[in-house]
Design goal:
This protein has 205 residues and is mostly helical. The chain is 73% helix and 2% strand. The protein has six helices and two strands; from the N terminus they run H-H-H-H-H-H-E-E. Strands 1-2 form a two-stranded antiparallel ribbon. Helix 1 runs antiparallel to helix 2, helix 1 runs antiparallel to helix 6 and helix 5 packs antiparallel against helix 6.
């Protein structure tokens, strides 16, 4: 537990967890950029491009840090790694959660388009994506995913209230877009950070 390791490979975190966090951060960075693209949809072209370019730089930075953390995991201990059977079960459950997410997105989008509420698609998609983080929080043991999901849902529901109330169509894309991007980027920070235990027994996530 107290054996010295390189800075990028904290001794208190297992190899599997480090790699899992790195993979999660990389995925969050990618989708954070995607949600930013949604957010800038109704912005003036020049401003939208500037915001998107800034988000792209942020995503690339997080992706680089995630790749670095994944490589550093090679020096981490394996004592806490899950068994092959456990990994298989987690993989199956993850696939089921993602499948349910995409089925829900497809069904809701079809209903909204059919009822001539296309403008609301981004907000309701953000709700579905946000909700899917709640089972993932338990599945992967990452409690911060509750906050990720809550952040996406709140931003989407805020759009559903304010856009019709203010008759501002741009809010349908700006609020869920930027709100979801912020939640995902904040999650990247959490997944990639490592802090030291108060008892001095070594670093931990």
């Amino acid at each position: 537990m107290t054996t010295a390791h390189p800075t990028d490979a904290p001794s208190a975190i297992s190899r599997a967890e480090l790699r899992g966090r790195a993979t999660g951060a990389g995925v969050m960075a990618f989708f954070g950029l995607g949600w930013t693209a949604c957010g800038v949809t109704d912005m003036p072209v020049t401003a939208g491009r500037a915001v998107f370019a800034s988000a792209a730089l942020v995503s690339v930075t997080f992706a680089f840090l995630a790749a670095r953390r994944s490589r550093a995991a090679a020096n981490a201990p394996t004592h806490g790694d899950p068994t092959a059977d456990t990994r298989k079960k987690v993989g199956v459950r993850f696939a089921l959660v993602v499948l349910a997410e995409w089925v829900a997105i497809f069904a809701i989008a079809r209903v909204l388009v059919a009822t001539d509420h296309t403008e609301a698609v981004p907000a309701f998609v953000a709700v579905v994506v946000g909700v899917h983080f709640f089972p993932l929080a338990r599945l992967f043991g990452v409690r911060a995913y509750h906050l990720t999901g809550a952040g996406m849902c709140v931003s989407a529901l805020t759009a559903a209230v304010l856009a019709p109330l203010t008759s501002t169509a741009a809010l349908w894309t700006a609020l869920p877009g930027f709100g979801s991007a912020a939640a995902l980027y904040a999650t990247c920070v959490h997944l990639l950070r490592v802090r030291r235990d108060n008892d001095g027994q070594g670093p931990r996530p």
